Amino acid sequence: MNQWDEATPIYLQLRRMVLEQILRGVFSEGEAIPSVRQVAAEEKINPITVSKAYQMLVDENLVEKKRGVGMYVREGARALALAQEREQFLNEEWPKVLDRLQSLEISASELPGLGGRA
User: Fold this and answer.
1) Which band of pLDDT confidence, cut at 50, 70 and 90, is reported for residue 115?
2) What kind of fold does domain 10-75 have according to CATH?
């Protein structure tokens, strides 16, 4: 069971969790994701919350509903998610990281994994 962050709506956190699992290959393209009822029971959250998260993934063309069967990762979902997440990181997150690095006068050579010490 997850520890939910009080500052972020649970449906957004759940969407992020499924998205990360798609990116990491935990859920492969064409594979079913856990049912709304299953996730709601396991996480002890309202099924409507799970449905809202899943609907966001459907709207983003990452997951598809198969009537009477369940929800499945769409073909091409990983590549699409990767492109969307990279764009979001580079446009929204990286500028903040870069600004913080500059304000702390940290050079690239000091960063672990980029030629600096680990």
Assistant:
1) low
2) Arc Repressor Mutant, subunit A (1.10.10)
